[in-house]
Amino acid sequence: MSLAVTPLPHRVAALTPALPVMAVPALLALPLTPDGAGPADVLSGLVVVYCVIRLLRERRRPLTPTAALVLGLPVVGLALAAMGAFSPQAGLVGLGRYLQTFVLVPAAVLLLLRDRAGFRMVAWSFVGLGLCQGAVGVHQFVTRTGASYQGENIRAVGTFGPHDVMGMATTVSLGLVCAVGIALGRVPVRQRIIAAGCASVLLLPLALSFSRGAWIATVLTCTVQLVLAGWRRALKVAGAAVAAGVILVGGFGVGSALLQQRIDSIAQVTEAPDQSVVDRYTLWASATEIWRLHPLTGVGLKGFPEYRDGHATLALSSGSETDGAGVAYQRQPLLSPHNMYLLVLSEQGLIGLLALAGSWLALLVCGTRRLLRVRADGPGLDCGLIACGLLLWLLTDFVYGDIGGPATVLIAVAMGLVAWWALAGHGEAPAEVSPDGVREPAEEALAR
Fold first, then answer.
1. What is this structure's pTM?
2. Do residues 147 and 414 touch, judged by C-beta distance below 8 A?
3. DSSP single-letter state for residue 439
4. What's the pLDDT band for 150 if we cut at 50, 70, 90?
5. H runs (alpha helix) in 37-87
6. Do 205 and 156 contact (CB within 8 A), yes or no?
7. How far apart are CA 287 and CA 272, in angstroms?
8. How high does pLDDT run on average in the chain?
9. Distance between CA 323 and CA 337 in Å, rounded?
10. Which of 5, 10, 167, 312 has the fewest CB atoms within 10 Å, counting from its CB?
11. Beta bridge partners of 124
């Protein structure tokens, strides 16, 4: 006697491939091991394997020629830089990290997401992760159990610890960008209200992260999202966010001297800058000098620390100090220039930077063009605002930081969302029902 297997409904079957992608941000909410490792990186690799298996079983065509060219372009510079690394191990480790972040995981996300519903599920997982990490960060500030900041353990770092102070700032910022995109889209009213509320709540942990780079990137990105969504909707959402931010920040008493001092320090680049600013500009100068001596292919992946001291001035400190959040005091070596573009330029040379930045520019152009096409008629506006917002945030934040740490896998998934919006074809997909009750054709549902 044979048992008949009931197939899943078409709508559910279309969403199923997105579940492993959603799980990657979810695992980042778990506490990290003492060495900073986490299960999210392992799962991202399994997502790539899962994508390959599905392609083989379904006999689907992989990436379109355009998508393969855009996502595969960084491989050129990476291959050359890996061969020029100071050791084979360093080359392989660096190559694996870059491929994971900018090629393999984004390609897997692009292929696994079938429609806008799957895209929104992953975007909501970003919001959920931001809320979880933000709640931990606010608790750290209130109870003074966070990372050390000006002699007090008040800096919100979430579960990432003081050795990765940008981890929580990144997750909260990307969650806020997704929430703003949903709130500005033409999804059901209840979703917009919930998203706007989440965006307002995330302002507090973002402020308590004391991350100037994340502040600048978030303000710029959300401003662009508001402008692209239309002035009327922008004014409403901006007014609600500002009011909620004033209430939350003022109610917790954080709009005081520490925040004001941190905000003022953004402009203090020439007059009495703090040591972190001095170190950053010294590292930038060192990376630029390294590139001048190795202009085309750089010094190889993971090579910046090996050449840093030979090109840095005496103004560079011996390392950054970390303390608090359950970790004993220690000094961390400065292993990167804290600027993604200069890191790529020094290690991969002009060839690597043009390849990687060319891929990002192609994604930005394709994504913006699609966003402008759907802005008039509505469906998919939220997805476009999220995808273009995520890419703009990353490109801005890369001026003040680079990849590294557990949160890097979240950047990889974000690049996958960007790639889906910018490069997804017009294949068959289940029809979607828009908020006004209009049922859209399958090919339009996938394209938007």
1. 0.87
2. no
3. B
4. confident
5. 39-58, 65-72, 74-83
6. yes
7. 23
8. 82
9. 22
10. 5
11. none
